[in-house]
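> call design_seq(struct)
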């Protein structure tokens, strides 16, 4: 009999556009797992889109998508949502869920722990980013500079004292305490989480990919071809990239963007810059080599938890420059596949490193030698490690958990296929959300006041 797995995530693939080039790394990660295990497990994905909770069902080689009729009331992993709890309880019953794999809780609520406990559901958590210790996710103080989790008081100032971090950290700690396994894709994630949640064991399982690794080629240092890759925003260092381009000699350097940017500067070509636009990840290596790219700059100003883009670039055999924080910095150093610079150095550090690479060909050649030994983790290796965690959690009564799509007809709330009601959702979206959020906006502050009073009594 097949096991039944429920994945919890914040967003999912656009069901109207399977060829989307802007699918998030978490979605790609779960899709890789689902595609590998679909013969052994029925896979369900609870996510939200257009302000409503949706359910994706993967069974017997087919995918079905349903709107569950419940609106998302908060995106901050709040403590209170009766509707969410009732919905999740019934889904776990009707889907005959064996265990839950949480990937992201943006848009989900603390009620999830009440459900897991009441149903005694085995649980795995994968930490793809820093949302559970920073509601901004990126750990940028006031969305400007990396804070490195200085203190809780710093977090409170960042949110103008509108957020109770002690309560939120306790909630997350309770969830971690309940979980059977907490997975991190890079040891820098564990290091940062342990600043807040030091008492838990984190298991390292690196993200895998099936990209074919290409042997690196020697570069012509007469003119250095430099690329920026992915979604280039302030968070990803767009301001730094712009200054690097503007302060470089066109006779010495040529710059390229493979991806998109929210800065109009990057949307048109200049004498030392070329805009290539969107790409599919399986085509990136070919595009980089076709344009004779010598080095790629990944200038994310906050710590990444893994960075699929880095794997894509490395598969093309091209060295990388990145800041010395998070998984990008750790992977570049550990694999010896490029160079790290201080985050504080910003564009000056990038410009100096580019000049050093160009003026010292032996340094570049030495870096290329590391690629001959490079072995990126594969999807199969990642899946095998994940499946080992799954198998330890499977209950003895799995033989009684056979499930069919017709079971969804038995839920007490209206559930409809997304393709049928897509236009209707858009028409009724605002009204439905307001109906649910108005009472919630009253209930939530009351609930948080009660929580604070309980905490104060507990300290006496």
């Amino acid at each position: 009999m097949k096991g039944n797995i429920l994945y919890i995530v914040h967003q999912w693939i656009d069901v109207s556009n399977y060829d989307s080039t802007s699918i998030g790394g978490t979605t790609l990660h779960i899709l890789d797992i689902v595609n590998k295990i679909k013969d052994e497990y029925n896979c369900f994905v609870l996510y939200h889109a257009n302000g409503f909770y949706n359910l994706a069902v993967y069974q017997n080689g087919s995918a079905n998508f349903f709107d569950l009729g419940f609106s998302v009331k908060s995106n901050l992993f709040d403590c209170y949502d009766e509707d969410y709890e009732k919905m999740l309880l019934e889904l776990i019953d009707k889907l005959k869920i064996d265990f839950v794999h949480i990937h992201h809780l943006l848009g989900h609520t603390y009620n999830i722990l009440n459900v897991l406990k009441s149903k005694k559901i085995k649980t795995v958590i994968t930490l793809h980013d820093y949302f559970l210790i920073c509601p901004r996710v990126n750990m940028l103080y006031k969305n400007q500079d990396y804070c490195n989790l200085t203190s809780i008081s710093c977090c409170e100032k960042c949110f103008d004292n509108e957020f109770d971090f002690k309560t939120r950290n306790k909630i997350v700690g309770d969830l971690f305490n309940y979980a059977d396994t907490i997975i991190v894709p890079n040891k820098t994630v564990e290091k940062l989480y342990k600043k807040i949640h030091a008492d838990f064991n984190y298991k390292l399982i690196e993200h895998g990919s099936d990209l074919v690794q290409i042997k690196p080629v020697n570069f012509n240092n007469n003119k250095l071809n430099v690329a920026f890759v992915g979604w280039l925003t302030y968070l990803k260092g767009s301001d730094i990239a712009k200054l690097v381009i503007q302060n470089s000699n066109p006779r010495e350097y040529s710059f390229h963007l493979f991806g998109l940017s929210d800065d109009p500067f990057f949307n048109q070509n200049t004498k030392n810059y070329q805009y290539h636009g969107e790409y599919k990840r399986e085509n990136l290596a070919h595009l980089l080599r076709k344009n004779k790219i010598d080095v790629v700059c990944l200038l994310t100003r906050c710590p990444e938890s893994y960075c699929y883009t880095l794997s894509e670039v490395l598969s093309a055999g091209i060295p990388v420059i990145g800041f010395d924080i998070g998984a990008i910095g750790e992977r570049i150093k550990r694999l010896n596949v490029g160079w790290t610079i201080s985050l504080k150095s910003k564009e000056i550090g990038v410009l100096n490193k580019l000049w050093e690479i160009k003026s010292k060909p032996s340094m570049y050649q030495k870096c290329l030698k590391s690629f001959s030994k490079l072995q990126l983790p594969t999807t199969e290796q990642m899946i095998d490690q994940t499946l080992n965690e799954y198998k330890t959690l499977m209950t003895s009564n799995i033989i009684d958990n056979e499930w069919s799509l017709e079971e969804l007809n038995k839920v007490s709330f209206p559930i409809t296929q997304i393709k049928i009601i897509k236009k209707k959702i858009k028409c009724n979206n605002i009204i439905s959300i307001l109906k649910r959020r108005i009472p919630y906006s009253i209930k939530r502050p009351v609930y948080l006041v009660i929580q604070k009073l309980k905490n104060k009594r507990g300290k006496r």
